[in-house]
């Protein structure tokens, strides 16, 4: 049986590459830490799959908190690493004690890997086809019925 955590991770991944680290943070109930990978411009390759960040702090800003900064440690091949072989391009070093600001943390192209911490707020509810909308235009209707009658 699939756990609620696994169901939430799957639902967020199904959005594809439209997530920022900030939106992931909100969608998982502000749980910290979490891990995520970035595939800029949709470039899914072995090199991008070999690296990820472990986010430990988020400072939302902007309208509705949709922008801001995410602070993380960098991992390559499953272990802490320098974010670049060239020290002048390195945003995170293997010996950093504090998480560092992630370049493009508020940009899209991020994929949630795992939720390591516990939510501090209610995460986004993942609806099943037989669930009933609790509010809005289609209050009281099943998700599957709304999909058939009003796709938009």
Description:
With 152 residues, this protein is α+β, with helices and mostly antiparallel strands. It folds into 2 domains: 4-121, no CATH class; 124-152, no CATH class. Helices cover 18% and strands 24% of the residues. β3 (67-76) and β4 form a beta hairpin. The mean pLDDT is 87.
The amount of beta strand, in percent, is: 15-25%
**Total number of strands:** 6
Domain count, please report it. 2
CA-to-CA gap between the ends?
Answer: 31 Å
Q: Biggest sheet: strands, sense, closure?
A: 6 strands, antiparallel
Radius of gyration computed on alpha carbons: 18 Å
The mean pLDDT is 87
Which assembly state applies to the chains in this document? single chain
Question: Approximately how much helix is present in the residues?
Answer: 10-25%
Instruction: Please state the overall shape, judged from the principal axes of the Cα atoms.
Output: elongated
**Low-pLDDT segments:** none
Total of DSSP H or I helical runs spanning 4+ residues: 4
Which sequence of SSEs, written as H and E, runs from N to C?
HHEHEEEEEH
Structural class: alpha+beta
Question: What's the short version?
Answer:
The chain is α+β, with helices and mostly antiparallel strands. The chain is built from four helices and six strands; from the N terminus they run ααβαβββββα.
């Amino acid at each position: 049986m699939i756990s609620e955590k696994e169901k939430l991770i799957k639902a967020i991944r199904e959005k594809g590459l439209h997530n920022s680290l900030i939106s992931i943070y909100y969608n998982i109930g502000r749980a910290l830490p979490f891990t995520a990978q970035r595939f800029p411009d949709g470039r899914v390759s072995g090199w991008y799959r070999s690296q990820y960040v472990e986010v430990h702090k988020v400072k939302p800003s902007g309208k509705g908190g949709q922008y801001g900064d995410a602070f993380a440690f960098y991992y390559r091949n499953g272990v802490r690493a320098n974010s670049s072989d060239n020290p002048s391009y390195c945003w995170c070093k293997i010996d950093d004690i504090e998480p560092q600001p992630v370049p493009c943390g508020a940009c899209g192209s991020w994929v949630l890997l795992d939720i390591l911490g516990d939510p501090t707020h209610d995460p986004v509810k993942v609806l099943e086809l037989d669930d009933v909308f609790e509010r809005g235009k289609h209050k009281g209707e099943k998700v599957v019925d709304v999909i058939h009658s009003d796709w938009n």
